[in-house]
Design brief:
Number of strands of chain A: 10
Number of strands of chain B: 11
Radius of gyration of chain A: 13 Å
Shape of chain B: globular
Largest sheet of chain B: 7 strands, mixed
Low-confidence stretches of chain A: none
Mean pLDDT of chain A: 96
Strand content of chain A: over 45%
Order of helices and strands of chain B: EEEEEEEEEEE
Strand content of chain B: over 45%
Largest interface: A-B, 25 and 25 residues
Number of helices of chain B: 0
Order of helices and strands of chain A: EEEEEEEEEE
Low-confidence stretches of chain B: none
Distance between the termini of chain A: 36 Å
Largest sheet of chain A: 7 strands, mixed
Helix content of chain A: under 10%
Structural class of chain A: mainly beta
Distance between the termini of chain B: 40 Å
Radius of gyration of chain B: 13 Å
Mean pLDDT of chain B: 97
Oligomer: heterodimer
Helix content of chain B: under 10%
Number of helices of chain A: 0
């Protein structure tokens, strides 16, 4: 079973700053199977990035994804107030199994 | 517009059963795999189960294998989760989610709350 580790658990930034979130897999995964989600309090998760680097429909271009193998990154180039939320990476495996990272909370400094 | 509406959540005693439903609209339901994902309030996301478009492929998390059964009725555009032998650690908000064209979940419902407590 592939484990996704997101560290650190919480990051503190000011609006306008650049944020880089990390997701590390316990073994190499296909970039096509790596996605990122944003979740705000009281809301369902929202797809941000799929295929490691493709933005989902309607996602602003300040969000970008990169990486391969075991190391993946979500970058938010200029933080807006609405970007402070929890972010999860996800791996889609065989037999429809899905693994999520434990999440990184982005908080306002 | 894609809509996923979960129902069936309730307060239930340990050891009892519950059936969750997810009504889908706004897309061709029988073209896509569907999933259940749960979240303990204040905690992270946990995948529960997934089912292929034609029910040929089904997967479960180890934590629910043997107790939960996923199913779908394509004629009714509905997804189900039969939960038996419920335990306190099954308490969570249960989301229904649609697989996209690739390996990701592109639409999520708002969730239905299951509380297992005596």
């Amino acid at each position: 079973e592939i484990v996704l580790t997101q560290s650190p658990g919480t990051l503190s930034f000011s609006p306008g700053e650049r944020a880089t979130l990390s997701c590390r897999a316990s073994q190499s995964i296909s970039i096509s199977n790596l996605a990122w989600y944003q979740q705000k309090p009281g809301q369902a998760p929202r797809l941000l990035i799929y295929g490691a680097s493709s933005r989902a429909t309607g996602i602003p271009d300040r969000f970008s994804g990169s990486g391969s193998g075991t190391d993946f990154t979500l970058t938010i180039s200029r933080l807006e107030p609405e970007d402070f939320a929890v972010y999860y990476c996800q791996q889609y495996g065989s037999s429809l199994s899905i693994t999520f990272g434990q999440g990184t909370r982005l908080e306002i400094k | 517009e894609v809509q996923l509406v979960e129902s069936g959540g309730a307060l239930v005693q340990p050891g009892r059963s519950l059936r969750l439903s997810c009504a889908a609209s706004g897309f061709t339901f029988d073209d896509y795999a569907m999933h259940w994902v749960r979240q303990v309030p204040g905690k992270g996301l946990e995948w529960v189960s997934g089912i292929s478009w034609n029910s040929d492929i089904i997967g479960y998390a180890d934590s629910v294998e043997g107790r939960f059964t996923i199913s779908r009725d394509n004629a009714k555009n509905s997804l189900y989760l039969q939960m038996n032998s419920l335990r306190a650690d099954d308490t969570a908000l249960y989301y229904c989610a649609k697989r996209g064209a690739g390996s990701y979940l592109d639409y999520w419902g708002q969730g239905t709350l299951v509380t297992v407590s005596s």
